[in-house]
Amino acid sequence: MFKKLHIVLIISILEVIKLLMSNQRMHNLYAIFVKNLEICKENAGNLVDELGNIKRRGVVPKFSDLEIIALSLTAEIMSVDSENNHFSILEGYRTSFPNMI
After folding, report:
1. Mean pLDDT across the chain, nearest whole number?
2. 22: pLDDT strictly greater than 60
3. What's the pLDDT score for residue 26?
4. What is the secondary structure of 29-81 as a DSSP string?
5. How far is CA 74 from the centre of its chain?
6. Label partner for 29 (CA 20 to 30 A): which of 18, 59, 71, 91?
7. What pLDDT shows up at residue 90?
8. Each residue's pLDDT tens digit, 40-84
9. Cα–Cα nearest to 77, from 24, 4, 19
10. Cα(38)–Cα(70) distance, rounded to whole angstroms?
11. Spatial distance between the Cα atoms of 87 and 74, rounded to a whole number of angstroms
């Protein structure tokens, strides 16, 4: 029950941010990404380590798990439906995301 309420709270926070960003006409993908990353870090709790990766053995990725989630949320907020379109938009932000493949 608590887990479902927590998920609903996160979704409602993201919906409010989506409304605020659409009202402010925020079109800078990196600025939206940074706001989403902050929200993900606040709500991740002890599920991730200090780098933002889910705790597991093996090689530590350069682009953290939380960054991937935040980037996916950014695409949803900006209403980018196609992954190809999303990656073509990201080409213009290559310097902002140096660790992304």
Report:
1. 79
2. no
3. 54
4. HHHHHHHHHHHHHHHHGGGB-TTS-BS-SSPPPSS-HHHHHHHHHHHHHTT--
5. 6
6. 59
7. 84
8. 888 888 888 888 888 888 888 888 888 888 888 888 888 888 888
9. 19
10. 9
11. 12
Global pTM reads: 0.69
Is 99 contained in some domain? no
For 44, other C-beta atoms within 10 Å of its C-beta total: 15
Report which residue type is found at 14.
L
Residues sharing a CB contact under 8 Å with residue 69, sequence separation 6 or more, in sequence order: 36, 40
HSE, side-chain direction, 13 A CA sphere, residue 39:
22
Structure-token match 């140096």, residue found: 98
Number of structural domains the chain divides into = 1
**Considering the domain boundaries, does residue 98 fall inside one?**
no
Both tokens of 70, joined, read: 């935040």
For Cα atoms 41, 47, 53, give the angle at the middle one, nearest 5 degrees: 70
* Assigned domain for 81 exists: yes
100, part of any domain:
no
